[in-house]
Known about the structure:
Blueprint: E1 2-6, H1 10-21, E2 25-29, H2 41-46, E3 53-56, H3 62-71, E4 80-83, H4 89-101, E5 105-112, H5 117-120, E6 123-127, H6 130-143, E7 149-153, H7 157-185, H8 193-199, H9 209-220, H10 236-247, H11 252-264, H12 270-283
Parallel strand pairs: 1-2, 1-3, 3-4, 4-5, 6-7
Antiparallel strand pairs: 5-6
Helix pairs in contact: 7-10, 7-11, 8-9
Amino acid sequence: MKLGMVGLGRMGANMVERLRQGGHEVETYARTAPERTADSLVELATKLEQPRVVWLMIPSGDPTEKAFQTLLPLLEDGDTVVDGGNSNFRDSMRRAEQAKAKGVSFLDAGVSGGVWGLAEGYCVMAGGEESAFQAVEPALATLAPEGGYAHVGPSGSGHFVKMVHNGIEYGLMEAYAEGFELLQGIPDFELDLQQLAALWQHGSVVRSWLLELLDRALQADPGLEEIRGYVEDSGEGRWTVHEAVEAAVPVPVLALSLFARFSSRQDESFAAKVNAALRNQFGGHTVEAAKAKAAE
Length: 296
C-alpha cells in the first residue's frame, strides 16, 4: 500500500525503512529531515492518492495537535489519519470525532518497540473504527512481528492501552533497578551483575526483554559508571497514575515507580533535609553539614 509518514525521528525513520522493505510505498515529511520526500504537509497530501493514509509519528501534545489541525483540511472523505505517537487517549477521542465530522477516519495506534523495532518489529495497539483498521492493516502486518498487532477497541482505546503498557513498563524497570541495587549493595559476595542478568534470561520467572537489555548495558559498562542516575518520564506514567486516581483503581507499584523517577532528578532532597532536621530536634541526632555550593 501507499501511505504518508509525518516524522522521521528514532521511531518514524525506522518504521519507514521497515515498511519500504515490506514493499510499501512511503512518502515522508519532517521539518528538519533532509531525506523527506515532501517539503510540507500540503505537498505530502498531494503525493498520495485517495483514499489517503497519513501516519503521524511525532511528539504528543502541541506538535501532534498542530499537525492534525493542519492536515485535516487537506484530506477528504474516505481518507485516514493514524496517530502512532504517545498521545493522551482523551485527545485521540476528540480528534476522532473531529475527523469523523469531515468524513475522515482516525486510528490511534500505540506503538512499542523503540530503536529495536526495525529488526524485531513493532507491537501495535490500534483503536478506532473497524474500517479504519482494515484500511491500514497491510502496513500494520508489515510493521509488527507475527501476532504483534491488534484492533483493541473504539477510538482512544489504542492510546489508552499504550498508556497503561508504559505505566507497567515503569514498574518493571523500577523493580529491576531496585533489585540490582540491592545485589550490588552487599559487598560480601562481589557479585557479577552482568552474569546474573544473563543467567536470569534462562528459565527464570523474571526473564524478559528488559532484562536482556540490562545485560547488554552491563556488558558495555559493568558499573554503569558512565551513566548519570537521572530518569526522565515522557508523560504516559503520569497519565496512568492520574487515570487510576480518577477511577479509584489502586496502582501503588506504578505510582511509586513514577515518584522514583522524580527522586532521581534531585541533586539533594529537601524532604530529606526536613527528616534530618526533625531527627536532630527531637533526638539530638547528628546532622551533616550541607556541601558548599560550587563557585559560579
